[in-house]
Amino acid sequence: MPVALVLFALLAILAVLVLAKTVRIVPQARAGIVERFGKYKATLPAGLNIVVPFIDKLHYMIDLREQVVSFPPQPVITEDNLVVSIDTVIYFQVTDPVAATYEIANYIQAIEQLTMTTLRNIVGGMDLEETLTSRDQINSGLRGVLDEATGKWGIRVNRVELKGIDPPPSIKDSMEKQMRADREKRAVILTAEGQRQAAILTAEGSKQSAILNAEGDRESLILRAQADRESKILMAQGEGQAIQTVFQAIHDGRPDQSLLAYQYLQMMPKIAEGDANKLWIVPSEIGKALEGLGSTMNSLRGIPDEVEGPRTRVDMGATAVDATTAETDRSLQSAHEEVAAAIAAAQESAAPTHAARPAAEPDLPSPADPALGGDPGEAPAQ
């Protein structure tokens, strides 16, 4: 009985081992390479697979996903004999698991070495300036060469990127100085451009300001000249109208010699109104003076001794004097009376002077004298 149990246990263990060797589970995005007696037999897809136990062997498990490999910086000599360090990143994917397994022993190392040699070949034909500014060109060249070389290995290179291009420290310092000089140059140029634009704008502003000021002065002078002209025209028109009015009034009043004598007597007190005139002496010859004035006025053209009838009016357009002949006579009579009173007052004030003079004085003309415009029937005022 115990022997039967041992055999059953051995058979169970053998069955489990056979089952374990028969069933193979391949993960997603993986491919299994099966060999039979050391020779390639089949490629197992993802999922559950059954193989012949103890005959077929799952030798390799290939990852079919896109992989990323970063290579360390490699020294590369440029065309102008400068050493730069370049590190790259390769993006690739296994498309044929059998070729990747049996065509190349280590495809990662093979890609790294191929990248280094291709990079040195491409960068060797460029100078430093072109190398620093031609990343896309270098990436495209690397990708084309790698994709062509790795195609027979069952690998497709999707993308190649340059992580960094590091020139020597001395070259970095020189480049920094050059960049600093270029920036300072651009700054000076921009400053000069700004100053030039500012000067141009300032000059244009000054020009416009001067033009506007000149135009303003011109308009001001024109307006001031027009105002002066209109003012002078108005003043001349006013003076002309005043002269016409006075001239019309003279013609309307029909003046004679007695009116002129009366005006002379009215001006005599105004002569003594000055502060320097402390003493005013009426000459005894005032009568002769008045008589002489009357005789002189007789010779003046246009001033008759006696006025007979109304004179011809001067036509002044809209100006008219509505005075009757009776009113004119009354005004003349009043003027004669005032002249007579003024002559009497002058004779009384001149009495002391007559006493002091030994010579005889001529008699003053009577207010009734026709030369003074008085009434012949009135008695002289003493």
Description:
The chain starts with a helix and ends in a 26-residue tail after the last helix. Helix content is 55%, strand content 16%. Strands 6, 7, 8 and 9 form a 4-stranded antiparallel beta sheet that branches. The longest helix is centred in the middle third of the chain and has 85 residues, at 169-253. Strand 2 (30-36) and strand 3 (39-44) form a beta hairpin. Residues 296-301, 316-325 and 352-382 have low confidence and may be disordered. The chain has 10 helices and 9 strands. The radius of gyration is 70 Å and the shape is rod-shaped. With 382 residues, it is an alpha+beta fold. It folds into 4 domains: 2-63, no CATH class; 66-167, Tetrahydropterin Synthase, Chain A (2-Layer Sandwich); 170-253; 255-356, no CATH class. Residues 342-362 have a biased composition (Low complexity). Pfam families: Band_7 (PF01145). This is SPFH/Band 7/PHB domain protein. It comes from Nocardioides mesophilus. Keywords: Membrane, Transmembrane, Transmembrane helix.
